[in-house]
Design a protein that fits this description.
Blueprint (H helix, E strand, L loop, with lengths): L19 H32 L5 H25 L1 E2 L5 E5 L2 H4 L5 H30 L10 H22 L6 H10 L13 E4 L4 H34 L5 H18 L1
Antiparallel strand pairs: 1-2, 2-3
InterPro entries: 7TM_GPCR_serpentine_rcpt_Sri
Organism: Pristionchus fissidentatus
Protein name: G protein-coupled receptor
Length: about 260
């Protein structure tokens, strides 16, 4: 075979051209999952709005915001975007109406996916923090001041957006994309797909940093949420001034929050 000097050439057996039938099945499965999840989240919003005690207004609004994030993600990712990522190459195209009808590119939609996903984690953290602070005894050292509480919330929101915003600049130029397709002709079929993009064949250092920051955000927020769950459970069961019924209600509220995220 002819030897190429293109620096973006790699040795691979990846020659899959996804069939129209597989794309149709993929799209329908995404839509079914998305619509089902949207209906469940909508039901949860109604139950939260009318079944959560009025005294827990801030907590109730946090839960509603969490489910709104779920709905936005499902509507965008499953119904309007419908991404396809033909791994192992870091590339993709989309089958939803935003790409096939509106003509939008994969990259912009993928950035939205990142933002909504990370902000959903942040919203869950905020709900957990609010519940934790609500149950803290008045003179507890773990009770945050209003300023520290607002700072923690703002930091969660801002830090969750850093990785997705950095990913905005991860898109290759048209010239670099053409070079990668030229060096890897087994990927040429993707150029005919709606909204296609190729980020990298071998993962570029910039992408490693960006994806690493996204994963770090997810890991840190997840660990903080686990710590908040454990600490809140400890507070509920160790506070002697609370009645058994009050402890049961607080524990049930924490379990419900955790199950909603799952």
């Amino acid at each position: 075979s002819e030897t190429t000097t293109n620096p973006y050439s790699v040795i691979t057996n990846f020659t899959v051209d996804i069939s129209p039938l597989a794309e149709s099945i993929h799209t329908w499965l995404l839509q079914i999952c998305g619509i089902t999840s949207i209906l469940l989240s909508s039901l949860m919003i109604v139950l939260i709005a009318y079944r959560t005690p009025m005294s827990s207004k801030r907590y109730r609004m946090g839960l509603i915001a969490l489910h709104v994030c779920y709905i936005v993600f499902d509507l965008h990712a499953c119904c309007l975007f419908a991404p396809v990522m033909p791994l192992p190459f870091f590339a993709g195209y989309c089958l939803g109406v935003l790409c096939t009808v509106a003509g939008l590119r994969f990259h912009g939609q993928f950035v939205v996916i990142f933002i909504v996903t990370l902000e959903t984690f942040a919203c869950f953290f905020i709900c957990m923090l609010q519940r934790n602070q609500k149950l803290q005894p008045a003179h507890s050292r773990c009770r945050l001041s209003p300023t520290a509480y607002r700072l923690a919330i703002n930091m969660a929101i801002i830090c969750s957006a850093v990785g997705p915003m950095a990913f905005v600049f991860a898109k290759l130029s048209d010239e670099d994309t053409a070079l990668r397709i030229e060096a890897n002709p087994e990927m040429a079929w993707i150029a005919d797909k709606p909204g296609y993009v190729i980020y990298s064949i071998n993962l570029r250092p910039y992408l490693q940093y960006v994806l690493g920051s996204v994963m770090l955000d997810i890991v840190v927020l997840s660990l903080l949420c686990v710590l908040l769950v454990a600490h809140t459970s400890y507070v509920v069961h160790s506070t002697t001034t609370r009645s058994t019924l009050s402890k049961m209600r607080a524990g049930k509220a924490m379990n419900n929050l955790f199950m909603q995220v799952l």
